[in-house]
Amino acid sequence: MSIYISIDPGNKKCGLLLADIKSGIVIEAGIASLNRVSDLVSLWNEDYKISKILIGDGTNCKYVERQLKQKDFFNINYVNEKGSTIRARFRYWEIWPPNYFIRWLPKEILFPPENLDAIVALILLEDFVKHTFIWPKQVDIKIWL
Predict the structure, then answer these.
(1) pTM of the predicted model, to two decimals?
(2) CATH code, 120
(3) Model confidence over 76-106: pLDDT tens digits?
């Protein structure tokens, strides 16, 4: 397996995504407080051999990189995250299509009911590898705050 972690760093929390690059499947996803990101990456690294870590190049990216390097994670790449939050709104509705009545409304006016940080991490990963990933139904967005 070739496992990547994608991180969308923010002011107080980060979206995280663990995915298998070869199969194109999301393994786990969630939202963690900024201070717990490196701990979560370490836990995932115990279960999976992490090949690469991707970090959105916006808010607190250097802070997250420093945290990861302190725990000896060095295979880190930055991904341009410009426009990723807006694109995540559309990607959300692709993964979880709206119910019958809402699906007829323009996607531009629909706001997903979930926090989009993990979906933004998915967008960053898909941009980096230039491939669309499958989000299995059993993968829920977890919250580690």
Answers:
(1) 0.90
(2) 3.30.420.140
(3) 999 999 999 889 988 988 888 777 666 556 6
Q: DSSP letters along the chain, please?
A: --EEEEEEE-SSEEEEEEEETTTTEEEEEEEEEGGGHHHHHHHHHHHS-EEEEEEESSTTHHHHHHHHHHTT---EEEE--TTHHHHHHHHHHHHS---TTGGGS-GGG---SS--HHHHHHHHHHHHHT-PPB--TT--EEEE-
The model's pLDDT over 24-43, given as tens digits with 9 standing for 90+, comes to: 999 999 999 999 999 999 99
Determine the pLDDT at residue 101. Answer: 62
Distance, in Å, from the CA atom of 90 to the CA atom of 93, rounded to the nearest integer, reads: 5
Q: Are strands 141-144 and 76-79 parallel, antiparallel or unpaired?
A: unpaired
- The total of structural domains in the chain comes to 1
List, in order, residues 6 or more apart from 64 with CB less than 8 Å away.
7, 9, 14, 34, 37, 38, 55
Q: Tell me the C-alpha distance between 23 and 77, whole Å.
A: 21
